[in-house]
Amino acid sequence: MLLQLRNVFKWVQQGGQRIFLLKDINLEVAEGEFISIMGPSGSGKSTLLNVIGMLDTFDEGEYDFLSESVHTLKEKYRSNLYKEYIGFVFQSYHLLDDLTVEENLEMPLLYKKIKGSERKALVADMLDRFNIVGKKDLFPTQLSGGQQQLVGVARALIGKPKLILADEPTGNLNSQQSEEIMQLFKKLNEEEGVTIIQVTHSEKNAEYGSRIINLLDGRKI
Amino acid sequence: MFKNHLKIAWRNLKVNRLFSVVNILGLSIGLAVTLILFIFIRHEQSFDTMYTNADNIQRVLLHTDGDNGQEIWATVPPSLGPTMMIDVANVEYAARTLKNDFGGTASLRVLQQNFTENNLFWVDAELLHIFDIPFIKGQAKGALDRPNTAVLSETTAKKYFGTTDPIGKTFTVDGRYELEVTGVYKDFAKNSTLDCNIMASGITTGFFKNPSWNNASFETYCLLKPNTDLASTELQLQEMLNKNMEKENQWYTFSLQPMKDVHLYSSGYDNAYASRIGDIKEVRNLIYLALLILLIACINYMNLTTARSQKRAKEVGISKTLGSSSSSLVLRFYMETGLVTLISLVIGALLTSAAMPIFNAITGQDLSTDLLLNFEFLISLLAIWLVVTLISGLYPALYLSQFKPVIVLKSSIVQSKGNIFIRKGLVVFQFAASVVLIVGVLMISEQMDFIRNQKLGFDAENVVAISINGIKGTEKKDALVSELKGLGNVSSVSLAQGFPGMEVSGRSLSRNDDDKESLNIQTNVTDASVIDVLQLKLLAGRSLPIFKQEKDTLVEVVLNKKAVDYLGYTPEEAIGKTIFISVPNTIVGVVDDFNFASLHEPIGAYAFHNNTGERKSFALVRYKIAANSTTIDQLETVFKNVAPNTAFEYSFLDNNLEKLYVRERRAAKVGFVFSMLAIFIACLGLFGLAAFMGEQRKKEIGIRKVLGASIMGITQMLSKDFVKLVFIAMLIAFPVAYWLMDKWLSNFAFHVDMSYSVFIIAGISALVIALFTISFQSVKAALSNPIKSLRAE
């Protein structure tokens, strides 16, 4: 078991009443799963993903990640935990504009305090694997959207995470680019056993996954 | 349209609270400083303009060769005044003024009571023709025509005579002159150089009755006929001098100084009696400082406004697509700036009236904010408002209004390199200015410490100078000395004309009577104990003889090393030689050099002698352990025993020395306060800028955090950029500061060397201040929740 959410609630207070963002979510994710979260806008998909990624807190319930109970952990340990095991992929890539492709890839390793020589090796390896060696000195703005997202995925993978969280990873891409990214996810999942949870609007993308979770108004249906 | 612009401007202010507060606070302080200095400068410039004849009044200056090249004295020989009135056609009136006891205090006995008066002037009756001084009692005309008459200022009359009508009453000065009060005049205005409490008719004294062409101790004013040419008048003065003095004996020439320049342009002149001396340099420096502070505040505005350009860019883009022209946008941003500066100006004016007493306390001024309501001032306020608005608004208005709507609306980030460069340049400028100010303040305080701790060649500590002008007769004075010596805590007592730190009599020293060359020398009438009292180092010979016969014409002298060096003797050789200081003098002793004047000046020649020309005005008392009130009480008791009818007045020698640096201390204090303000404003700007930088890099910070960056790491990253700027600022500031302080220090003949430590301390403090300022924002940005900033657009 990779992670488990039990009776998770999240709400905001608005005008004296609670607006529920997540309502009684129960979820078990085993290692090697590929899950797609679907649902209309505002149904809580991203919130759920952020909670799983420990970027956001929740108000009630329990969350175990690799048998650590996240809800009782301090911020510092929590950040160590996700730094170690989770990679993020965003809809708008969120690459750093001032850094080259190579430097963008290197950044998570810097924060993991990995030595220079090892960093070089890992980055070179990743550039090679994603076929972007020729682009390593370019800045994100010099790349197409698909290429940027490729870098985004590579960056998420470089720390060898157990879990990749992707928030509409193909939302800004055209269909061909989308296809490539989804194929990449599928390959990672099948060949390397990386657990993937993605948020998507597209039925087609959702098909890549092994399981679909549907949300409506913060509730699993 | 106008109303719409104003509405948007107001809303913008309300929405961006931090931005508005930082801007308005910075500008208000900047404007308050400017306003205060404006009032101060106006006050300084208004000196002596209240006299009807102000344009035609001149002060006579004396030029002579001193030890350090040309010296200009504000005092001239007593013969000049009366002679020029007769011989110089352009002169209508001339009047001499002489502060009692050549700049000392007067001991008064009024209605059976003793007082010490330190502002009594002996003047010619013509003074009342030259300056129209309004009288409350009696008449200005003829008030001082007779000998033994005096006029009092209103406050002084009240102080000495209370409610009794002083007209016709008499009082005694220094137990010597009995004066009849013939008038009471309104107190001199705060901005009058003349500031006498009592004006006594000069012809009462011998100095006025039997004038000479030496003894240049008389500050002399003259009233010229209207539209007189100054140069020709000065020529006439020279002709007059030629008529009265042989060419080779002329050790001086004269020039005229317009009354309106007297206050601000006399700081380099010696011997003036006026205590209200301004300094155009000080005024200029303050103007520069005020402009600098205002500029820093304006830069804050520019910086913060352009930093927010991304937010505003979209607004500009939309406005433009809706058909707004560039000029209309320029107007709009200017309106916003104008609103901010207007609010700041109002707050600044309020701050000004609140801070005025503080400024007065620091500078020893007595300025009021009444001027703020003056019509002329309101006009200049309007001008200040316009100028500040124009400067502050210039860059934002022009920069922001030029955005191209397509680019602005398409991409989320608009950031031209030029913009960043200018913004960073502005921050660098602000910090460079701050660093220069810090170096300045540190350097000045180091020099002040140096002055305080400098070995002066004599010991000013534990010496009290008691004024004995009111004591008549040698016996009484001798009695006082022996009684003082009888006190347990007193180690030695000396009677002297003056003491180091005050002017004594300037004469010239030459080898013999015929010697054409001479050296200016300060001469001080005193007795044998003076070396003990002042703890001077005797290099050769002995002190002055203890006894001197009443009629003995032989003058003994103790010279300092500088004087002996001039004569070309070693101290040992000098003993027994006869030299010439007005009269022949026999050298009996040589003391090592000591700083008898301020440390601004190199040590000159000095002589202690026992000729009888001048009066011994002080009893200098050295005591064994530090004086306390008991010591002073004992001194007073002894003094009262000997001279029951004289006021007891004393001062500590070391305090007197301190007074030589009043202007420097004031400059140090003013500099300190204003520098702090400048740094504070610069920090406000940095604070705001850091806030917006943090906001700008929100996305980046979010990404980094998601990738595992620690809060510490983010804080460091954000601070690094600013630290770099501070370092660049230092690189620029240090040479400038070095140059400025080198110039300032050269005002002192004795000064500290510029030390690295000052620069290091200034650099570190700038850095610490900057880091401290930024850290709030950096930490805040680092703590912010990444999902908020990364939420998909």
What can you see in these coordinates?
The complex is a heterodimer of chains A (221) and B (793). With 221 residues, chain A is an alpha/beta fold. Helices cover 36% and strands 27% of the residues of chain A. Chain A has one domain (32-57, 75-220): P-loop containing nucleotide triphosphate hydrolases (Rossmann fold, 3-Layer(aba) Sandwich), CATH 3.40.50. In chain A, β4 (60-65) and β5 form a beta hairpin. In chain A, α3 packs across α4. With 793 residues, chain B is α+β, with helices and mostly antiparallel strands. Chain B folds into 3 domains: 2-42 and 280-451 and 664-790, no CATH class; 54-262, no CATH class; 469-645, no CATH class. Chain B is 50% helix and 17% strand. Chain B contains 26 helices and 24 strands. In chain B, strands 1, 2, 3, 4, 5, 6, 7, 8, 9, 10, 11, 12 and 13 form a 13-stranded mixed sheet that branches. A 6-stranded mixed β-barrel of chain B has the order 16-17-22-19-21-20. In chain B, α1 crosses α12, α10 runs parallel beside α22 (662-696) and α15 (417-453) runs antiparallel to α22 (662-696). Chain B is elongated, with a radius of gyration of 33 Å. Chains A and B meet through α2 and α3 of A and α23 and α26 of B.
